[in-house]
Predict the structure of DUF4221 domain-containing protein.
Amino acid sequence: MKFKRILAAIVSVIVIILGYSLHHFIKTKKTHFLSNGGFDRNYLPIQSELKLVAPSLETLYRFSHSNNTNFTIGHCDKSLVKITYENDLLEFTPIRNIPVFANSEYFSDDTNENIYILNKNNLITTRVKLFPGFSKRIISKNEQLGQGIEPVIFSDNKLICVRATNKKWHFQFQHNKLLSKNKMTLIKLVDQGSIKHFTLNNTFIYVSLFSNEIIQFDSTFNVICQAKTIDTIRLKPKTKEINNSLVFSSPPRVSNYDFFISKNQLFIRSIVKSNREIDFKKKIVFDIYDINKKFKYVGSFFLEHPNEDYPTDMHLLNNNNLLLLYENRIEVFNIKI
C-alpha cells in the first residue's frame, strides 16, 4: 500500500508539472504569437476622406516601393505603368519599350526615374532610364550587382543593395562599405520585413513584418537606434534551410504589414488588435511613431474598411493622398496629417 501511495504521489506530481507546463506553453504562445491585445491604442482625431474608388488594371499586382510622391510605378504581369492622381482622377500611362519577362524582376529607385531589371537566370541587372515625357531608352546594361533576388535599398538614385534568399550570401554594395559584423544581421532582417530610406537625415529604417522590431541604420548600415512597435508580438518565426534557401518552419504571423514615412513620422500599418478594440476587422489601422524621438509612439488612426478584402500594397502621393491597392480596385484616401 505504501508503494502505491508513493507511486500515486509521483504520478500526481508529474501530472501537475505537465499540466502547468502545457498551460504556460499555451499562454506564452497565445500571448506572443497568436493573441490579440496586450496593449492599448490611442486613436488621434486625424481626418481622412475617401476621394476615389477606381477599377484597377486587371493584372496590376504591386507598386514600386519608392519615396516618390509625384507618381508610382505599377507592376502588371506583362507591362509597367505610371500611375498618377490629379484633379480627382487616377491615370494609368503605359511605360513602353520595357519588355516584361517571367524570368525577370522589375524595380525602381526612390525617384522612379530608373527601372532595374534583374534576370533571375544569370543574375545580371540592367538599368533603364525613364526620360521626361517617358520615351524610353536603355542607357546602361549588365550592371553586375551580385547574387540576389530583390533590390531593396537606393541612394543617390542608384541601386546599392539586393536581397538574398541564401543565408550564406553577403550583400553587394556599389558605393558604401558595409561592416562585416552587420552582414548576417541585414540578411536576417530583409527576410522578415522591408527597409526604406529616410531622406531627411539619410538613414534607413527597418520594420519587421513578423515581430514588433524597428531598427534605424546610418548610411553605412551601423545600427543607431532600436525600438519596438506597441504590439506584443516579439517572437519571430523559425526558419530552416532547404536547397540553400531559407524557408519558414511553420506559417508565420504577420504583425506589421507595411509602412510609409511622412516628414519625421513613421506610419506602420498594423494588423494586430489592441485591448478592448471594437470592429477591428472594419478598420485599416496605422500606428504613428516619431522618428526623431527614438520612435516614440505618437498615436494611431484608422481608415474605414467596410469590405471583406484587404489592401495588398500602398503608396503615399503628394498632399497625403494614399493609394491602396486591392485585387480589382484602387482606393484613394486623403489624410489630414
About this structure: DSSP finds two helices and 24 strands in the chain.
